[in-house]
Amino acid sequence: MNDLVLAAEGASADHTALAPLIIALPLASAFFLMLFGKRIDRLAGVIASGAIGGAFLASIITFGSVVAAGHEAAESHRFFDWITVGDFSVGFDLLVDQLSAVMLLVVTGVGTLIHVYSIGYMHGDARYSRFFAYLNLFVAFMLILVLAENLLLLFVGWEGVGLCSYLLIGFWFEKPSAADAAKKAFIVNRVGDFSFLLGIFLLVATVGSLSMVAINAEAGAMSAGVATAIALLLFGGATGKSAQIPLYVWLPDAMAGPTPVSALIHAATMVTAGVYMVARLSPVFEASGEVALLVVGVVGAATALWAAVMASFEYDIKKVLAYSTISQLGYMFLAQGAHAYSAGIFHLVTHAFFKALMFLGAGAVMHALAGEVDMRKMGGLRKAMPITGTTFLMGCLAISGIIPFAGFFSKDALLAAAWADGRYVLWAVGVLTAFLTAFYMFRLYFRVFEGPLKVPEGVHVHDVPPTMAAALIPLGILSVVGGVINLPGVLTLEHFLEPVVGEAQVPEGAIAWVLGGLAFVAGALGIALARAVYLSRASSLRRRKAYSRAPGLVDAARDKFYIDRIYGYGIVAPGKALSSYLANVFDPRYVDGIVTGTGRLVARASENLRGIQTGYVRNYALVFLSGAVVILVIQLVRVGL
Amino acid sequence: MSVAPGFYLVLAGLMFAIGVVGVLVRRNAIVIFMFVELMLNAVNLIFVTFARQQGTVDGQVLVFFVLVVAAAEVVVGLGIISLIFRYRVSSNVDEINLLKR
User: Could you tell me the residue range of the domain that residue A36 belongs to?
Assistant: First the structure.
């Protein structure tokens, strides 16, 4: 680490100078709002947005200095010692390099827009200021996660965002469903965190340091077996936080929270923490040979396909977007499994743009329709809500991989990487998923925004207020042009990230065009199918026909393929049975038995020993005297009398 | 005229033994108290004896301490005994066993 700091000092200005400020601004705002939020009420949103906006500006400056520093920009700085035990020391170390600079921009940039949007969206909520306090706290923890140089600090951010996620999913805790969803998210994440912690322990035991720079430098020296174990344990943590099979079940339920939360935490930033972590520790994954990366890729591809199928059968617009998020996160892992970490990060960035946009658009629809989320009760909203409808269409085109929208370039990059790495099956799954993605997104779009106007009764539809439009429009533009950060052939972002995550293979020549064309065709076909089934005149007839062919399958899909029930019977029920045994049988009989048994033993012993105490002073004095005599005799014998 | 120190020591030993036996066998608190004083004075006698024999004053100084402490102890002890007597109308130590059970 020291070498690195020295190298950076020679090359450039101090990038880490602003790093603590970037974290401190939202953190300070969060605590301020928690203490005084009630009094300032309406101002809370402005203060919170201002704090994040300030962090965004500081991030831009930091990013600029990283860009100026070129290849050797990585720099870490210890701001204070945190834990020191003997030779082992953990500090508040922040690392600014190309990867964290990109993440900083995404987190604070998208975060700022969503804060501004929330001013309008949460208007009139009883706990208005608390919402912004939590949102600020979340951003602060996310920034700690992104800037952390050692794994312990990263874990602080990791758990902190989990806590804020819990608080915000359960923000409307009067609703039992929201409270339950919050608990579910927290507990499922706990499972992943357990694996993550084990991975960290194993890393410390192997490398003897928590510093990620040191770990990455020594990863090559690890044996492949140990590296595989570490990588798989760390990836276990990522499956929890980034909602991959088998721990994805919490994310669809997390939609019980306010929509800006879904946009910021459960689409754009927190759920990408796993992707970020894998990219950050990519040398460890590389050191494991092929096994760990194959697992990452296969889990990613399987999740991408599985969640896309689920999304195609969901009627709740937010849940469609939730499954879509899971599916897109799967894409990112698919790319990382093919050594293409920068492609994963590229998709992370563009996904943050278009998915945040679509969530905010969905929020605008709910806002207009008095909280309605069932897409069967909607239709033709684009004419009534032109800003929302148009920006939402941008997002749909982007995620479907249509040229020249942002998603096309990122999806093409990661599918091409899978092909170039020889993972043809994963590539095929990716293309199939691209088809399904376009299908379910346009199923949503056509049902909600096109066709004849249909709204729940007694609702007066209105388009978004200015604060919400102020977030939708920039995100809409970014969804269109976001691809320019990494155009094929130029690869700005990939070359920028190379010092951190290494070089990825890119297919050359004609094959690159064919792969891109195939991904595009898959998306276009998906849109065409959605149009045929949901927008054309014969659409309802076609749907009925399709249903009559395989009613069982469709019903199963609508019930999420019984996954929640399987988890319920297979994991939750035995867990409950075990705790009930422990609480009702084991604890009273054995644990309490030991405790009361000890007490009873002492009581019985003292009952018997009490006889010695006669209460007569003479008896005590006699014992006294005998003792004195004995000691005297011993002394006399010793001096030889 | 001087007496050999041995006689003083024997006398002190007898006084101490009488004191011990008295404390053990008598039941009246005030009498026990007096036997305790007897034991203390037996020890004082030994101190003085050796002080004279050695020609130093250390032992004599210690005797003054013992006397003062014994006086203080008698004040407190008699106070307790008279209080107990006021409540129990007895100074028999065998009847003063409230802490038992």
Answer: 1-149
